[in-house]
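Lab notebook, bench 4. Still working through the backlog of constructs that have no structural model yet. Next entry is a single chain of 66 residues. Request: give me the structure tokens for it.
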Amino acid sequence: MCWNKASPIEVSYSMESKDDMAGPTSKLTQFIYGALKSPTTRLLPLLHQDLSLLRRKSSATLSGLR
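Model written out:
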């Protein structure tokens, strides 16, 4: 039996709803939106730097495992 009869469109609409941005998985999204909307975007270069460092570490780890 299928209890949930919501169509895919309804499901995607409810997932894109900005009202429930309080979930733990959306904290990062909320932070990024806040950083993008804030007039002082000093955090973005720092965030970009952190991401590039993470990429370097992960690629170094992967090459070390081969």
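Notes after review: The chain is about 65% helix and 0% strand. Residues 35 and 41 are 6 Å apart (CA to CA). Flag for follow-up if needed.
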